[in-house]
Amino acid sequence: MAIHIARWQFTVDDYHRMRTAGILTEDDRVELIDGEVRRMSPVGPLHAAIVKRLNTLLMPHMGALMLISVQDPIQLNDVSEPEPDIAILRYDASYYAQHHPTPEAVLFVIEVADTSLDYDRDEKLPRYAEAGIREAWIVDVEAEIVVQYTQAIGRQYLTRREYRRGDSITSVAAPSITLQVTHIFG
Length: 186
Known about the structure:
Blueprint: H1 12-20, E1 30-33, E2 36-39, H2 45-58, E3 66-70, E4 86-90, E5 106-113, H3 117-131, E6 135-140, E7 145-153, E8 156-164, E9 168-170, E10 178-180, H4 181-185
Parallel strand pairs: 5-6
Antiparallel strand pairs: 1-2, 3-4, 4-5, 6-7, 7-8, 9-10
């Protein structure tokens, strides 16, 4: 006789209520993926440095039409609210004070992967694609490459391009953004 394990799927509203009630605090490194509260990897110094460097490199490209969101939630649907390392958002005069950005507001996301490469690529990337986020970058710290994913169809991106030191990468979703890969890794 097979035993079926029932799982409780939390909604984004449930997740927010857990924060409000103090069950989860701002110091808890968690995110909501498919109704599960998942622990995120600790942020090491190199990971943090690359996120800061990306923020600095991206800032001059923002103009009046885009915002940079650093390690903040985006609501993909009713049961997923990941926290990408960087999200480039359409400008909102309230800076999304009333709600977290939804996929329509997200131009592209960047995940910095030092210890989280498999999770970022195999868990988060398909959910970004499924939500209709046009572009995602994974910064592979160990290999020192940036992988750009575009053309979201279903749970996958049809196009995958790798960029190495010496290359420049231009966003498809925000073509005014071009970065030198060498500068990302320092």
